[in-house]
Fold this protein.
Amino acid sequence: MKVAVIGASGQLGNDIVHAFQSNGDEVFPVSHSEIELSDLDSISNGLKKLEPQFIVNTAAMHHVENCEREPQKAFAVNGIGAKNLALVARDMGSILMHVSTDYVFDGGKRSPYEESDAPRPLNVYGNTKLSGEYFVRSITPKHFVLRVSAIYGKNPCRAKGGLNFVELMLKLAKERDELRVVDSEVVSPTSTVEIARQIVVLSRSDKYGLYHATAEGSCSWYAFAREIFSLTNTKVNLQIAKPGEFPAKVTRPEYSVLENHELKSNGLNVFKPWQEGLTEYLSSRTSN
């Protein structure tokens, strides 16, 4: 299969490229320098030269604070960009895999969100990503919209200063005697390797639609940090941050756990418990 991966140099895109290559597919990594998502002609010209059968879009403006400061720019990339991709994919007869986010929910449910739950974003980022979902779902019938959560991978994430949560915790543990991490936000930490693996599985299916795609189970950021230090035998005084100790500049959902209901109902779910994904990530980290 001929696969184009948009945002191929990013944290998730990099592992998607490798996953499809390992599967024997012909992969075209596409970077921001090659196409501009907010420009329909740029997307059309760039993709039609490649003639991909399957398009994966991981590109987004996903720095939450920057989205809040520049909502028009965020919508141009996350909303109109998805719309443009859907139009081009439909015209080419290609399948579009569009990656979205758990931030389409407000966290008020306090039990895992299923695909049928009504979204209610709390910030500009969540709203623009939701608009992208709606564009994709309404424009091209051959689509997968994949909501992911709390991702981490080996390739640096520019929007987060090059360090994912795992690497940040291990770095800070070397620099400080005590670390304080919030216990109030609950997520499903998911490695990019696992998401890439799931995307390859979905690419062989015609069960188009909206999917939640996260590791099994959930934890707070504090519990995630505790597991990181336990698995790496890192000695550090880890404490729960006091309420309001790290005030957020932008409102985020305190609970954004997703249930992979549709993957499971279609017999397509390949995710493992988040602890196993973390163990796999740490093992690959030390072997390189």
Summary: The mean pLDDT is 91.
